[in-house]
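Same chain as my last thread, 120 residues:
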Amino acid sequence: MTLIDANVMLRFLLGDNEEMLAIAKREIESGKAYTLPSVLAEVVYVLHSHYEVERSVVRDVLVHLLDQVSIQHPEVMVSALNYYADRNIDFVDGMLVSRARLLGENVLSFDKKLNRLINE
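reply #2:
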């Protein structure tokens, strides 16, 4: 297994550097790539903030990518991407809501919107 970072994922998704794309594609399509939730959060941020990709498109491409790249608790990541796209909240907040709802984790926050989502 190979841990891939945000740059590998971004080159794979954007295809803006042929040499890097080939390397990223080979690794991701091998089925041996994995990443971390923090790396996924960086990819979400870069795609939306720097490349101005719409939230729903960010969700769709990353959900598809997670079919090829392993990550701990993929159901939580997909749920977080849905909250991010559908509820217009930060991806990290979406992860917190999803961890609380899907994994039963106790989340302490002073964010009223986040607490409402957790308790829905």
